[in-house]
Every structure is written in C-alpha cells, then in structure tokens.
C-alpha cells in the first residue's frame, strides 16, 4: 500500500479501478439520465408515409402554374384524409384532397397548400399560390429509415431521446446499471438524525450528505448505519456492504487507536491501494478493492473508499474521487466538473507539500471570474461548503497565490451557469 | 386574446402569470433539488462542545513552553475521553488527556497535540512541540450558533445542505411544492407507445418527451392520454386536468378544422392570453389560465399551454415557456439556460418577421465557441433535437447571419460544461 501519494496519482488509481457496469433493460422513463449500452436501431421509418406538414389541401402541380392571389385556380375537393387514416385514393389532375397536419397525402399529390392560402367555395377550393414541388410534404423516412442507428452506444438519455425512443415504439432500452453505493459511518460520537446529542454526540451527517450526492448522480445509495468504535462492529457493517459496487465509509481511517477500518478491511480480503493523499482537506483517504466477491453484479468485488470523518474533508474527497468513479460506472464520459479560470481576489498562503482545495465564491466582474475564499477553511465547517460555488485548486508546491493571480476552479453548483434572463 | 406576439411578449405573459407554489414539509431527502420556503434556524450549536480536531492529547500550555523534538516535556495521561462522551474532569497543569477526533476536550484544556508529535511512555506521554493556544481545538459553536439562520429562504437543497440539515437534527424541511403538470395529446393519428402504427398512425411521442422534461426539472408529470379529434373527447381530457398546476397539451391548437382545443378551453372558462408567437419552430402556441378552479393547490387555476404538435416545435416551446414557468413555481430564481456567445460557422438565412431557434452543435476552437446547424431544421425531425447542443437565436428582424457573425446560443445539454479531465 502506498501512502502520501499525489492527487493525480490518486485520480489514476481510482479511475484505473473503475469499469462501466453491465447493461440492463429498463422502461424508457427509468433510463432518463443514463447511458446506452447498446445502439438503438430503428425498425420503423419516420414519418411512416408521405404526409402533410400543414392543415390544407394536397394538390398536383400541373394546374397551378398560373395561380396568384388575384388569379386563383379552383380545384375540386375530391375527398378528405383525416390524420391517422391511410391514403388509398389517387388525385386526378384537377382535384385536391383536404388534409390535416400529420395525415398521409394521396400517392399522386405533389405539394400541400396551406389553408391560409386557399378559399373554400362549396365542394371546390380556390388556390391562390403555386407551391414548390414537395412543399409542406414530409416524405416517408425523411427523419428515420428502417435500419438507421438512431442513438449510439454511450448516448445519455434526455427528454429528446425519450421522444425519439417513443416515436420508434421502443418502450424499453438497455442502459448501464446504476451503481449501488453502500454508505456507512464509524464513531461512538455519532447518532442518527433524530438521536440524542447530549454529551458532545453529533449526527452522522456525512452519511446524509453522501447519500444525497449519490442520488444527484443517479447512483443508488444504500445506507448501512453507524459502526461503533469496536472492530467487530466495523467488520459486521463492512461484511453487509460487500454486495455493493462501491463502499463509502467515513471516519475511522486515520492513525488513531480507534481507527479500525484498515485492519478490518485487510482481514476481509480488501487489497488496499493507498492511504493518504497530499491534499487538504482530505489527506486521510484510503482506497482499495475486493478482487472478487460472490453476488457482486460486476464480477469483481466492490471498490472501497475510506473517507475522512470531517464533513468538508469527506465531501471534498467524494467530489474528487468517488464522483468520477460512479460516473464512469454509469458509462459517462464527462467525469469532471466544469473548470473556470479565475482571478484570485485575496492573497492565499499555505505550506508547500499538499494541494489545497479552497472553498470559494465566484463573481463575474470586469469580464472575468473573480474567486474569493468563503472564509473559515476549517474542515468541520460544512456551512462554508454549502455556500461555496467551487473549489479553487491551490497547487501542491505553491505557497502563495497573490491577489490578482489566476487559478483554476472546479464549479460545484449545478445551476451555476444558468441565467436570470433569456439572454436576448 | 392577442395573436402573433413577439417572443419577448410571450415570455412576459407566461412568467407574469406564474407564482411560486406554497410550501410543504417533506423529509430532507425529498427536498433534494428543491427550494426552501422558510429559513432554517439552528436550535443547536455546532460543534456542540469544545472538541478535538485530531487524535492526540489535550494539554495545558504552561508546562510546554520549552518543548522541542530534542527536549520533549513529559506529561501524565490522567484520563481518556472517547468520542461521544462528555468531558467532566479538568486537567491539572502537568496532566494531559487522551482525546480522539470529534471528542470533547476537558474544560481546562488549552490545545491538542497531534499524536504524531508525541511518544507514549507507560502512563505518560512525551510532547515534543509547543502548540499555539487553541491549536486543534474546535470551539463550541464555531460553525453554527443557536439562533443562526443557517439556510435562507429560496436556498436550493443540494448534498451539502442535506448534510447541514442532518447535523442540525432537521429530518424535515419546508420547500415549494412540486408543480403537477397534466400532459395530454390530441389527434386521431396518435397511438400509445405500444400501439398499432399501420395506416400512417404515429406514437404520441410528445407526451413522453414532455413528461421526461418535467421529471428532469423536478416537476410531477401526470400523463392523461390521447384525445381523439372530437370536441367531447378533448373536453373530457381537459376537465380531468383542471386540478393540475399546469396543463400542457400538444397539437390541436392550430387553425385547422380539427383543432378543438381553443373552443373547448374557452367553454371550460379558460382566459386565453395569446395564440401565435412570432417564432420558428413554434408559432402556433396558445397560452391561457383559469382564474380559479376548486381543488387547485395554489388558489388560482392551472396555467394552460397549447403546444404545436410537431415534436421539435413542442420541445422548443416547452424550453422557452413551460420550463421557466415550472422553475418559477418551484421557487427557482435561475430560470434560464446558460447562454454562450458563439461564432456562426455557416451562413444562415431566413425571412424577417419571426425569431428562429436554430438547432446547433457547438465546438470549442481557436479560443471561441463555434456553432453549426444540425442540418435539416424541419420541425418533425426530433433526432436533430437530440443531437443539438443548443438553440441559436436568429433574431426576428434579421434575414441573414453571415459566416463569422456572432450570435447567442441557449445551451440545452445539461452536461455541456463538464470536462473529460480534472482540469489540472
């Protein structure tokens, strides 16, 4: 097991261990936000037949060459084709057919004239323009042909893709399975949300934060509860987590007397890859994996993240390492948050040797993004995490970012780029 | 009722009619992504007591002034305070107490020395540094005081906010109700997803697209099915939708003989505000509202959107008008998609008089965003909507955007700004 590795080495390790999960067939609404494991090939053509794009009259062109508003041409309305009925009759040269948007046009029709450009006169219609060939006719197969690969492997299903699938009659689709993430906490000071907090006890809030973060990504959190500070309790909780795709524990992975997670994991057969990443917050992060566990959906056993117990440290470690791993398991290719280049408003200092993720707020000013520390960077202060727009990357070897320096910020707020006006 | 209004007039009308929905108390996990209707005021202080930020030894400072690695000071380990136990004993000047991360420190402790900076010697510990006053002690209330407004009205609940709420022992919270959106389709050519598509019939795919779009926003779609092209059928479906917060129908709102939606709505008491917006796709959009309907959660009756039947038109109208309305109902302030200024790669032309929303793909090149039409802009071609990164705004009075011109693009793809690397 390596200790004290760099952030980049930790990224390489965790992402190198993560594989996209197998596909499963789900109803299309359950596929929303998920990625295809198999291409969607159409067994239909769309539109299914030549059809009208407008309410109006299907016509042949021969008789209409001279039609103008002042010199309309009158055609007999031979029949009507409502939407959803096949068009079996053909049009004779001086005939028209009443058609509606989406309705098939007669086989011999050469264009559709919008009803705005016509005037009804008994069983005849006066046409006052000469349409272009094919005007307002949508040809059979114009959108999709039989055999077309309409959505490719890896495609993420959004509302438009749901619409495409529906129009092809596909009520189910094969997407990557959602990762099951077992979440557990450790520490005698921890209680559940409605627990008694006298005597310095605190709520195991990390489990709530991390469960919510999993849900936001589309993963399935499995909350396993709180282990006490005894190895048997820690071991029992981990054993119950072995069927998950990923285990995320918080606290209990440092070097204190009460930190039983590492020995317990090793005893259960976990191959620990590293402990300790040169970052702040979040140094005491452990990562390993089980090579095989019966009952695991992916063949291999679960990945294991032992996150620090401090809420901010746990959240930052989740952001950097667990989030991209879960996204990769779901077949996503865009694993990382948006990055902005920003200007540092107030000087930042630290000791070299660890990369700092500085919680910052961002403001657009003078044509650039300005970043300001949220203040107290103590890793217990979760409210500052809630207030932060992003994490500023203060590189490992740097000791100072002067006011006015540029830096990179990972944008955490999902709605950060949205606007309060339509933009025009 | 106004007809042929501008896009801006339509924005003003629909947003002027939308109000945030009332609050409801929900379990915190159901609040994820939703906005607070009442501030969250803490009834606890966090940390609950002065506590240790590290595993180590709580000490008084007096005896340690001279401690260095080569000249350590030895203190008696008087007692141990596990996490989750109150610290009742006080430290005498030459005593220390074994403490663990998150555990309360004794009342008289002045600092915590990390165990890495100590050496145990029987029931004594050798300390080889002199800590600063308060070092590694997190003070009671340092993060949150009793009475602090921790999260304000309008705050959107994400994972960090869930963690903050959990740490305060708040298992429920008051957020804006999710809008119930009744979705219905009209047209004899329409069938459900598993229906028979012979004779030119097509799946009512808009209902699927729009239901998915509602879900993505956090609204509750209520799918009411397909009305036939008879006024009684349309009326029956609309009556069953009156308890919703918003009704979205597609097709049946144009000027054709089979378009029964407008007369039906008027007969039911809907006050139609406009029909027809100077845009493409999406001109035949109708909007109105019911001033009061018994059983509606918001006092007033539902807002009604009659969207065009063409899939792309329906989706673009939803984007421009229904989406911001639903977000406002949910108490959101960021109602609009991200906007990018882009360079137009290929010349675009149109007739003046309607604003065009052009489906484009975006590419970052030479330090700028370049926009390219997805090709066929027919409003039936839903696959081009699925392929588009955004909608380029081709202004109403313009007739040409030359290659190299700049334009604004509404970015539709939620993951557009994410990265394929950590960014450093």
Q: What's the short version?
A:
Chain A is α/β, with parallel strands linked by helices and 424 residues long. Chain A is built from seven helices and 29 strands.
Structure, described:
- 2 copies of one chain form a homodimer.
- Chain A is α/β, with parallel strands linked by helices and 424 residues long.
- The first copy, chain A, has 4 domains: 2-22 and 177-329, MoaB/Mog-like domain (Molybdenum Cofactor Biosythetic Enzyme, Chain A, 3-Layer(aba) Sandwich); 24-46 and 143-176, Molybdopterin biosynthesis moea protein, domain 2; 51-138, Molybdopterin biosynthesis moeA protein, domain 3 (Beta Complex), CATH 2.170.190; 339-411, Beta Barrel (Beta-clip).
- Chain A has 7 helices and 29 strands.
- In chain A, the strands form 8 sheets. In chain A, strands 1-19-21-22-18-14-17 form a 7-stranded mixed β-sheet, sandwiched between helices. In chain A, strands 8-5-7-6-10-9 form a 6-stranded mixed β-sheet, with no helix packed on it. A 5-stranded mixed beta barrel of chain A has the order 23-26-25-27-29.
- In chain A, a hairpin with a 2-residue loop joins strand 9 (118-121) and strand 10 (124-127).
- In chain A, helix 1 packs across helix 6 and helix 3 runs parallel beside helix 6 (311-329).
- The longest helix of chain A has 19 residues, at 311-329.
- Chain A is elongated and about 95 Å long.
- The interface between A and B is large, with 122 and 120 residues.
